[in-house]
Amino acid sequence: MSAWNQLRLPAEHELLVGFYDLTGYTAFAERRAPREVLQILTGYFALTGGIIADAGGRLIKTLGDAGLCAFFDPDAGVRAMLRVQSEGDALMARQGFKSRALVKMDFGAVALGKVGAPDAEILDVYGKTVNTAAVLDSKGFAMTASAFRALSADTRTLFKKHTPPISYIAASDHR
Fold it and tell me: Is residue 172 part of a domain?
């Protein structure tokens, strides 16, 4: 059984938190009928949410082209988000939307709880870790130093330091 199903809420945990969204989404959505955009993004989030879930993570919520996710295992989370980026980008290209998922991640304490209208609450995450991930500058795949330090030595080899300020980007990034 998943750790997500065993949570007693509200709770506080150390999690890897990530945001991802698509470049060029506004222009894409303006050129397509709303139902077509919905259909394409339904497929996109089915794929990316499945990748996240297979890695033991949780797609917390979506808003337009953006997703917020969290993982108990930082290594599994980072590797899943690399897959989200590559497989999600390929799926969108097949739909005629040449885009790139921008990924931003931080690791630290978060509060988890159900919020929303009565009888329609959803699981959400709050705290400095979420806010830090949200505002992290990313031109592709970026994480904070605290997220990088939470990784195993093997997973760390997939990234290089990028300054200033210090963040870690995919080793394949040409910067």
Answer: no
User: H or E element: which one contains 106?
Assistant: strand 101-115
How far apart CA 118 and CA 78 sit, in angstroms, is 34
Going from the first residue of the chain to its last (175 residues), give the mean pLDDT of each consecutive group of 10, the final group possibly shorter. 88 98 95 96 98 98 97 98 98 93 98 97 97 95 95 95 75 84
Q: At 80, list the tokens.
A: 């899943």
Burial of residue 98, with CB atoms counted within 10 A of its CB: 0-12 exposed, 13-18 middle, 19 or more buried: exposed
171, part of any domain: no
The amino acid at 3: A
Say how far apart CA 32 and CA 122 lie, in whole Å: 29
Domain that holds residue 71: 11-136
E strand or H helix at 115, and its extent?
strand 101-115
* CATH number (domain holding residue 107): 3.30.70.1230
- Look at residue 63 and tell me if it is in a domain: yes
